[in-house]
Amino acid sequence: MPGPQGVRRILTAAANISIDPILILQVEKALGDLETLVSREIGTWQDLGAALAGWLPEAREEFELGNRQIAYRAMANLKGKSAEMLIILRLAQLAPDDPEHLDTVSIFGLVQFKRIRVGTPVRFSRTALTSTEYEPVRGITGGPSPVLTEFCSKPTPEFTTKDVDDQTQFELIGDEVGVGSLADIYITDIQRSNKGSFNNPLTASKDYVAVSSVNMPVRTLVFDAIINNNIIKNFEPEPLVYDTGAHGPVDPRSPRSRGSQIDTIGQIQKLSNRPGDLRIGEVARYTEMVDYVFNELGWDRSHFQAYRWRVEFPLVASQYTMVFS
């Protein structure tokens, strides 16, 4: 929204081209009245956009997008790294040997990752969600490397790994900056009989929660959940966003989650099983990668339903969550 000074410049220009002076005075008076109202009831002119976003749904999306873009640019400069896209894919089906729980597969992808500042470390972690004895995260083939080398950029990014408590921590090897640091990175893991995603201890019901954590400045988040039909039945996912900066990951089924919830707009798209429906325009081989994972697992994709949540300039230190309940 233009500030009052910008409007006054327009009025000055209008006076120079012989616009009716009475009309200009009327607009000037209305502008002055609005400034008084904003100062008295809202605070500052900058606060007016936030207030209108709350009152007018049609203004909210544009307001939030503009401010998230500003936050992205600032965080990329401060953190010294960014990516064009973060891809989080969650696959889930009932565990064959433990139908009370799930087998879950995750793909974590960074597209066009770039280090902006010299010496900036690039670290991320995967957490085991089972309540049984912890086992380090491994790739879907059971091998020691979770990196999907077939789909990463070349030369293939390399990492050091370290298991700490219930996490496997990864750090990207190298110190290139700018164009020389550009890389596409894809990591996958599988967890059997996952006890952290399915049961709801508060209601004794079967809820499924898919989580996407954003810990790096990215222009776009593509969050896909591809869930076996036996799990979700006729449920439709609810989009929820949480602040993880203070207390870390949030379980939306806990009463304490409300204190971390961010009131924001979210829309989840239900996708069909038609070939190519999972396509991401910016990632040419995405559907090929999904098919590769399904083939490695031996899962029949026709028995699954896909959902997508796409967010431009997602908030850093936040958790985007789909709740099937």
Task: Please characterize this protein's 3D structure.
26% of the residues lie in helices and 34% in strands. It is built from six helices and 15 strands. It has helices spanning 4-15, 21-42, 45-55, 57-79, 229-232, 286-297, and strands at residues 81-95, 98-115, 123-127, 159-164, 167-172, 183-194, 199-200, 205-206, 208-214, 218-228, 238-243, 261-262, 269-271, 304-312, 318-324. The strands form four sheets. A six-stranded mixed β-sheet has the order 6-2-1-10-14-13. Strands 9-15-11-12 form a four-stranded antiparallel β-sheet, with no helix packed on it. The chain has a three-stranded antiparallel β-sheet with strand order 3-5-4, with no helix packed on it. Strand 7 (199-200) and strand 8 (205-206) form a beta hairpin. Helix 1 (4-15) runs antiparallel to helix 2, helix 2 packs across helix 3 and helix 3 (45-55) crosses helix 4. It is elongated. The relative contact order is 0.16. Residues 129-137 have low confidence and may be disordered.
Question: Could you outline the blueprint of secondary structure elements for this entry?
Answer:
Elements lengths: L3 H12 L5 H22 L2 H11 L1 H23 L1 E15 L2 E18 L7 E5 L31 E6 L2 E6 L10 E12 L4 E2 L4 E2 L1 E7 L3 E11 H4 L5 E6 L17 E2 L6 E3 L14 H12 L6 E9 L5 E7 L1
Parallel strand pairs: 1-10
Antiparallel strand pairs: 1-2, 2-6, 3-5, 4-5, 7-8, 9-15, 10-14, 11-12, 11-15, 13-14
